[in-house]
Amino acid sequence: MSESVLSNGVRILTETIPSVRSVSAGVWVKQGSAHETLDTMGASHLLEHMVFKGTERRSPRELALALEGLGGSLDAYTSREHTSFQARVLDEHLVEAMDVLSDMVLHPLLRDEDLELEREVVLEEISTVDDTPDDLVFELHAEAFWNGHPYGHSILGTRDTVAGMEAETLRKLHQSRYRAENLLVAAAGNVEHERMVELAERFFGGLSSGGLVSSGQLPAPLDRGVSAVVRDAAQTHIVFGAPTPARTDMRRYPLILLSAALGGGMSSRLFQRVREELALAYTVYTFQSFYSLGGISGVYVGTRPGWGEKAVDAIREELGRVAREGLPGEELARTKSQVKGQIMLSLESTGARLYRLAGFALHDEKFLSLDELLARVDAVTEDEVLAAAQASFDPERQFVLQLGPGVDPQDAGLAP
After folding, report:
1. Which of 106, 202, 217, 285 has the least C-beta neighbours within 10 A?
2. pLDDT averaged over consecutive 10-residue blocks of the chain (416 residues)?
3. 3-class DSSP state for residue 274?
4. Which helix (H) or strand (E) element contains residue 87?
5. Angle at Cα 297 formed by Cα 291 and Cα 300, nearest 5°?
6. Residue 17: inside a domain
């Protein structure tokens, strides 16, 4: 990994992979749903959509064709703490990719008439989530779990906030946040760092510095409780969640191992118990999200209405066992091998390398080589796993939300 910083504050990171003929390049802006107020919820995501509606030099169709016509691709996403725009191209087309990315990020038109069209697209996106209960349950759980903190804001926004969003709001957001000190430019693949610095200077060097986005207030998530949202559905969807430390905390590594052992695949404890032994669900898995100021680790299960109590009891039993015992030596060793293998396999694409490269920088975390990262995983002890399990997997520390046909939490076995 190589890193440079332009005089205006733009950071440039590269990872050279000479064995490939492609480059994945991206621009990250430190602006996401966690930086929004309740009234502006969804603004970051809507702005991400709007940059595809045309720039000072390119129409929407020309943006779409610019890289696709070369066999490449262009994409974007919004998260809780940043917005990202990425391109993947043959190495010989890196200049074109950087030209398009900078044009979109720095020079979108953000016209009123385009917003009237694009807001309908985002409203349909919101409707898609509303019609997908295994997505909606995570939205509802996050809103309650984060207890008023912006980490619980919907990335898409609500129907009311999106319907009421004005183009001037997006223009002001772009003007204030899409500034040099909030930008990270990265590339992974067959690319030379010096060449990437030259291109970053050419396309982003004239951008004003602006000011860094504040990380905001420390969250105070719910570490216990139950909730039920009544909705007609063919399944009952249940999410468990407990607080974890932030991304840069070293306790992340035992938590990752615990998550893998509990619900990271077909051999995991929850899959074997809930699906294979009890046949209570088709889908059961663990999940984790680590942010700058905190995180969440939890379990999802979708089960037949009326089976929620049995599924919850089985999950609580497994969480309780790991909170009491941690992971015995043989299981811990096996889980380490699993996690290390997944890490190595996941990094066989330039896109994955790009996201990993940016991930360290976005959280001001020291970049770890693959060998260093694997060594971190290997160094986790049984005592560290037990301490992490007691802190974040104890069934008495879970906030649990059920979405499905009307059942009282007490009757459904959700109450601890």
Report:
1. 217
2. 95 95 97 95 98 96 96 97 97 98 97 96 97 96 96 97 97 96 96 97 92 78 92 94 95 97 96 97 97 96 94 97 96 98 92 94 91 96 98 96 78 52
3. helix
4. strand 83-90
5. 125
6. yes
Environment class of residue 141 by beta-carbon count within 10 Å: exposed (0-12), middle (13-18) or buried (19+)?
A: buried
Looking at the structure of the chain, the number of domains it has is 2
Kindly state whether residue 220 falls inside one of the protein's structural domains: no
140 lies in a domain? yes
pLDDT computed for residue 172 by the predictor: 97
Strands of the sheet with 83-90, listed across from one edge: 2-5, 11-16, 183-189, 22-29, 83-90, 73-78
State the Cα–Cα distance between residues 192 and 198, nearest whole angstrom. 10
In degrees, to the nearest 5, what angle opens at C-alpha 401 toward C-alphas 251 and 415? 95
Of 50, 126, 122, 116, nearest in space to 85 by CA: 50
Rounded Cα distance between 315 and 305, Å, is 16
Sign of CA dihedral 141, 143, 148, 150: positive
Q: How far is CA 197 from CA 206, 338, 351, 367, in A?
A: 14, 37, 19, 19
Phi-psi region of 326 (alpha: psi -120 to 50; beta: other; left: phi over 0): left
- If DSSP codes are grouped into helix, strand and coil, which group holds residue 76? strand
Give phi and psi for 297, each to the nearest 5: -135, 135
- CA–CA dist 412, 286 (Å, integer): 21
Residues 282, 45: Cα–Cα separation, whole Å: 32
pLDDT in the model for residue 222: 87
Domain boundary among 204, 237, 253: 204
From the candidates 15, 36, 48, 81, give the one annotated as an active-site residue. Answer: 48
Rg (CA), the chain: 22
DSSP state of 28: E
48 is catalytic: yes
What CATH number corresponds to the domain at position 268? 3.30.830.10
CB 136 within 8 A of CB 129: yes
Assign 264 to helix, strand or coil.
coil
For residue 50, the enclosing domain spans 2-204
pLDDT number for residue 152: 96
Structural domain contains residue 197: yes
Is the same domain home to 326 and 284? yes
